[in-house]
Amino acid sequence: MPVALIEEGQQGERLAIDRLLDLSQPDIRRYARMNCKTEDIDDAVQDAMWLVYRRIGALRMATAFLSWLFEIVRRECQRVTRRALRMQPL
Asked: Domain containing 21: what range?
């Protein structure tokens, strides 16, 4: 990811954030497919992208973007999996 684009996103530039999400979506989807323990990864991907959009300003270092992004996806996968397990009939 271009560091300048990440930095613009951190400053709240919506076009930069949109571009980052466009560039990141294939990686987010691939990571979720490999790490989610549920069939419905679309929810995890959508929720992760929404969190990135809302919280990119909290990212401290632009160079940490990818690890920060994948941590968000990992946590969303866990959350979606827990929700799916709670909804299963006993």
From this structure: 3-87
